[in-house]
Specification:
2 copies of one chain form a homodimer. Chain A is built from 9 helices and 10 strands. Chain A is α+β, with helices and mostly antiparallel strands and 282 residues long. Chain A has a 5-stranded mixed beta sheet. In chain A, strands 8-7-9 form a 3-stranded antiparallel beta sheet. In chain A, strands 1-2 form a two-stranded antiparallel ribbon. Chain A binds a DNA duplex (30 and 30 nucleotides) through α3.
DNA sequence: AGCCATCGATACCGCGCGGGTATCGATTCC
DNA sequence: GGAATCGATACCCGCGCGGTATCGATGGCT
């Protein structure tokens, strides 16, 4: 199976429309139809049910969609990491660390400072991304290592090292009735009247249905809270970047949040190993 | 990057010899040279240092060797799992579970019995493989789920569910001086005179250097112990398949062995989910 | 009911590229 | 110094990929 065929099939499976998929791939529709048909013949499997009005995935087709995406990510990762390895001998970008925009910045700063002091440390680029995008960044080679937050992020398929665990607090608009309390229970803040929990993107980029506002990063989130349109339960370290207009109250019965360092399992990079070592020594 | 190019490069990188690699790939040497050169040009990276007498990997080349193997495994997995998904609608092979030949068979039997009693259970093929091959089997799609034993096996890049934890025992030839003891300490059996620890294959198939005999599976191991040529520290469940000529003594200070069910992280199979559910309910 | 728009499949064509053979140039060993 | 080894180069052929033109089926609109 060639990556070209996989790319074609994934495009069609995502669009469920040969014409659109062909446009996305920058090619004409007929060769795309042929290529997918040929892939099916070679696999001996029907991947798509076509009528002239609709295209749907078969059982096998949805398996190949998931597996094919993973395989294409792996190929992309091979490409990117090879290129990076080549310039790393000559140039600079040693490691790329990805984390959610605006999360636990003091911990990260401490880690980077400690690592920079190590002998043989390389430069670490910090890449900020939206919620739930880190895993993808690691899998397709755009990043080498990530800061994840359990239980929100999934560490499926990654090697991890636990860094710290902290309780959670609720972030409210200043002046909210609960904002003067010493602490609140989780049940009190999950369904606050007029302050719904915001909806965060799922891994595929879509948003779940519901009443709350859609939120892509923490800047949006804080602004919405300050505007009195949302509330959020976040790790304690969110206090650090608290802006005026926001109040914070501990939520002792909320599940603890664990910050972990995560990286793809077969990494053999000395630089990454060094970073992990300094992280564990703290 | 096409999988064909990756396959070619991996072959050359493994053989470090264009002629042999070409023979392995069933093609002539010149087009192979050209294809690898073209890959280097497209990546903008030199992967191999060639003289007319030797071929060596560059830094970037060894990165691409590791990453490329992973990517090729992912593509193979996509192929195999798609084929399997297609026939699973019509035919039988529902899940393939892989475990080390001759390990914790009662636990496995119980799990399979419990799962078979579930509604909607599919048939589970059990695949036995040599030591350290399970991870590969999962990654390239030959198996859907594995029984692994921590801390011996690595669960890097896999989702896992803990099944049970047990102590370890040392297996000795019957009649060995230590075989009558109620228990022994780990230090007493790590360097037994005349009974070295056997050498097990590394993930790449080679064996570490050392004095002990090479061992691929537990049948070989038990035979070697009975012959008085080796000893081994194994989980308690090894008692179950004890043959005459062998003695077993607990080793309380040896690290506990945890048996885990492991599967590739992005599996979306209902059958696998069912198996994991029955495993966790025990 | 009939027409048309939509969409995937088919037919056909041209060229680029992958793979083959022959040969070269460099290095090493006897 | 000659021969053997090994990767690179030169050249050629045929397949396959991608293009355009068109067909056939389906569904909506009047």
């Amino acid at each position: 199976m060639e990556t070209r065929e996989l790319r074609y099939f994934v495009a069609v499976a995502e669009e469920l429309h040969f014409g659109r998929a062909a446009r996305r791939l920058g090619m004409a529709q007929p060769p795309l139809s042929r290529a997918v048909a040929q892939l099916e013949r070679r696999l001996g499997v029907t991947l798509l049910e076509r009528t002239s009005r609709s295209v749907t995935l078969t059982e096998a087709g949805s398996v190949l969609l998931a597996e094919g995406r993973a395989a294409l990510d792996a190929v992309d990762a091979a490409d990117r990491r090879t290129r990076r390895a080549a310039v790393s001998g000559t140039g600079d970008p040693g490691l790329v660390l990805v984390t959610k925009a605006g999360a636990s910045s003091e911990l990260l700063a401490k880690l980077l400072d400690a690592y920079a002091a190590e002998p043989g440390a390389v430069t670490v680029d910090v890449l900020l991304c939206g919620i739930g995008e880190q895993e993808r960044m690691l899998r397709d080679g755009r990043a080498d290592v990530a800061l994840l937050h359990l239980p929100f992020d999934s560490t499926a398929g990654l090697d991890t090292e636990e860094l710290c665990t902290e309780g959670q607090v609720v972030v409210l608009p200043a002046g909210h009735p609960l904002s003067t309390r010493a602490e609140v229970r989780l049940a009190e803040v999950t369904a606050l009247p007029g302050l719904p929990e915001p909806r965060r993107p799922r891994p595929d980029g879509t948003y779940p249905d519901g009443p709350g506002p859609q939120v892509r990063d923490s800047a949006q989130l804080y602004q919405l809270i300050a505007l009195g349109r949302a509330s959020a339960v976040l790790p304690e370290s969110a206090r650090a970047q608290l802006s005026p207009g926001l109040a914070v109250v501990p939520v002792p019965d909320a599940p603890a949040v664990t910050t972990v360092l995560a990286w793809p399992p077969h990494s053999r990079s000395r630089a990454l190993a060094g970073l992990v070592r300094t992280a564990t020594r703290r």
